[in-house]
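Model the whole thing, not chain by chain.
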Amino acid sequence: KQEVTQIPAALSVPEGENLVLNCSFTDSAIYNLQWFRQDPGKGLTSLLLIQSSQREQTSGRLNASLDKSSGRSTLYIAASQPGDSATYLCAVGLLNAGGTSYGKLTFGQGTILTVHP
Amino acid sequence: DAGITQSPRHKVTETGTPVTLRCHQTENHRYMYWYRQDPGHGLRLIHYSYGVKDTDKGEVSDGYSVSRSKTEDFLLTLESATSSQTSVYFCATRQGLYTEAFFGQGTRLTVV
């Protein structure tokens, strides 16, 4: 069974700092990995999607990397701002024996990020 | 975000009553999913659909059923609500298997 772990569980940093969130998964047979942001009481907002054949994706101040063989992904946030405060979730799509699993995602527990002014 | 609307957004119901949650999408996405989010468990898949009238069970499907009679609507039914089904329920959609997944705003369900 695929297990996804996110470290740290919580992180508090001063504004302007660069930071890294970690995601690890136990089964490397994935077809993609997606990072989400969740604000309190809200839904999930997609940040970045990395296909299994890709090494990284960038969007603005965000950069996500994927090392499928070692079962790791990182989300790098540059020049953090108070508005970045949220819970960050990673989710992997697992390939089954038939070559797909209908787009089902397995989620980590999330990292709660607080950026203080 | 794929125009996903969940209804109701909040609901309080009594143990033993049936409850139906609705997910409506406007982007003609083929794949639709229901997840629940609970402290300590994260998000877990309840049921999913890979086309009209094509559905299957997820990780935590006991006590839930789904129906999809139209591309745009995916219904989640709790046949007889229990307190363990108190949770926040999220609907998600994606166009294709390898494309981005989008989530609705969630439905907070309380079973008393």
